[in-house]
Design brief:
- The chain is mainly α and 171 residues long.
- The protein is built from seven helices and no strands.
- The chain is elongated and about 85 Å long.
- GO terms for molecular function: GTPase binding.
- This is MYO5B protein.
- Residues 1-126 form the Dilute domain.
Amino acid sequence: IQQVFKQLFYMVNAVTLNNLLLRKDVCSWSTGMQLRFNISQLEEWLRGKNLQQSGAAQTLEPLIQAAQLLQLKKKTSEDAEAICSLCTSLTTQQIVKILNLYTPVNEFEERVTVAFIRNIQAHLQERNDPPQLLMDFKYMFPVLFPFNPSSITMDSIHLPASLNLEFLNKV
């Protein structure tokens, strides 16, 4: 059950983040607030179902950071440093793409300046990120089946003659 929910939450994360990276109309402060609220609801549900140890919440980390990126100030060099230290699960390409797509929804917000985005790129140039922008939503985590040894010893097992396993010898 834990592995199923980890996979499911990964897919939710990947599809949502990919939509965020491809749609300019959703890259705003209010979307960041809505995403963060929805993620907190998912995390609360995991706690309620006692699935905290499943790793499902950790698969949402890139989406959490993207939501926070949408909500942070994006003006000064200190803001750039804060973004770089916060967004460790996002690639440089993803951070820059979100900042380029950021769209103010009211007159109190401003577009992200080109100078600020270059500042971010300068801070992140030493990162060794993969060159991909979108997440692979078809990625599958390996399924692990726990080994539960039997309390029955092999020498106490009786093999019926109808199985035709005479070639097996008890040792």
